[in-house]
Fold these 2 entries.
Entry 1:
Amino acid sequence: MSYSESGITQLLCRMGYVYKKPKLVPDKADTGKQRVFVQCYEALKASKAPKTLFISWMPLIPIIIR
């Protein structure tokens, strides 16, 4: 099964999800973990991977849409 970007947006809306503006990151964030995440995410973006969405109830866990 595959979804278009607008299709997944409509599906999430029907399921009750809403867009919320991101909040500021607290100053106690682990910079080492952030650095590792950014490196992994940049590698993912550079690859030929499909689009990646981040959903608020699963922070920093990518969902791949094919």
Note: The CA atoms of residues 52 and 64 lie 5 Å apart.
Entry 2:
Amino acid sequence: MGKDFDCPVICLIKGGRLSMEFEDGNKNDAYGRLFAYDFVDGVSVKETLLKEVFARVEYIMDMNG
């Protein structure tokens, strides 16, 4: 991750309680990377970054196929 991205993520998680949720049977993606939903104090990190324009949706994974 680049320097532009690091600050919003660090500021978001700093001082909060970080938790991760996994889908049944899908702990890693096709490249072996950890696949989890991250939350800080019960709030989705991904949704927060999207709402504050630090991220964008580029691909939606088909969970049924």
Note: The chain has one domain: 3-51.
